């Protein structure tokens, strides 16, 4: 008798079972805390392997993780390309393989793009809940791509902002963003205009040089720095990196992959998981940066969530 072939769960099905990124919050908070607990937390996750594809300006990331608390084993394969000529192809594409951890059998192949968009935004939301100033009124998003949309959705679901602003390098995309989302958004002509006076800032661009200057940032603001995941790419300038309290998802990853951290020489204060565990304080009264690179265990718990929901309905 042959083994059961893996199921394929495509983007539409993933979206159906994960219609709100906030569904992932409890699992992600636990995974971040477990990751930062070291061996005792039961998360096995190396820093991802990123293979450059120099001829085409692309990268293939391989992101395996096992979470003992969830008894879940996955690897995500994610490609990201800097300058795609065909704008109908997304800059990031991903697939998650979910294995039976007891015997290594491949159980499911899941679309990873929806998972990547939603788990990243959910992790930024976790950071924001902990680190944003009291009475935050203005949200500013720099970038108008996939991550901008997923961040807008969960941030406006969880928090109450009086004003949401967007800036994008090409203004048409920002205008389109403002016309597509559910609430009012002010389209700004410059990053400086968007950032000035903002309490919470999300940088989610493909920039390779700083787009956000410390000069513009209101003291006490919180920044989720989501882009610039290569050691020579930047979104934030040195002033901002050095004059903020710096939180990361993974110290090892930040010191390997983040141009903003490596090139500025900024000191890492804590991993988000350490704040969640209560071993490091959050310091919301200070200007804070959460440098997000994206962790494999986030995909593990998200894929398990989707697979379990899919299984329950089949
Ligand atoms: N931290 C994490 O867990 C994750 C981070 N990312 C990163 O988030 C960023 C955004 O990803 P997506 O929204 O999926 O990409 P996207 O391609 O959908 O959107 C990128 C946006 O950046 C803008 N942009 C492109 N080049 C730029 C430049 N040189 N300067 C300023 N803006 C520029 C584009 O106009 C577009 O609005 C990327 O850097 C990506 O690698 C993506 C997935 C997970
Ligand atoms: O975590 C992730 O999937 C990624 N981070 C940067 C590019 C893709």
From TrEMBL:
Question: Could you state one GO biological process linked to this protein?
Answer: thyroid hormone metabolic process
Source taxon at top rank: Eukaryota
Chain ranges passing through the membrane: none
State the name under which the record lists this protein: Ketimine reductase mu-crystallin
Cite the EC number.
1.5.1.1, 1.5.1.25
One of its Pfam families is OCD_Mu_crystall
Kindly give the PANTHER family that the UniProt entry links to this protein: KETIMINE REDUCTASE MU-CRYSTALLIN
GO CC entries: cytoplasm
Query: Does the keyword section mention Cell cycle?
Result: no
Q: Extract the InterPro entries matched here.
A: NAD(P)-bd_dom_sf, ODC_Mu_crystall, ODC_N
Q: Which GO terms describe its molecular function?
A: pyrroline-2-carboxylate reductase activity; thiomorpholine-carboxylate dehydrogenase activity; thyroid hormone binding
The lineage, from the top, is: Eukaryota, Metazoa, Chordata, Craniata, Vertebrata
Tell me which UniProt keywords the record has, alphabetically: Cytoplasm, NAD, NADP, Oxidoreductase
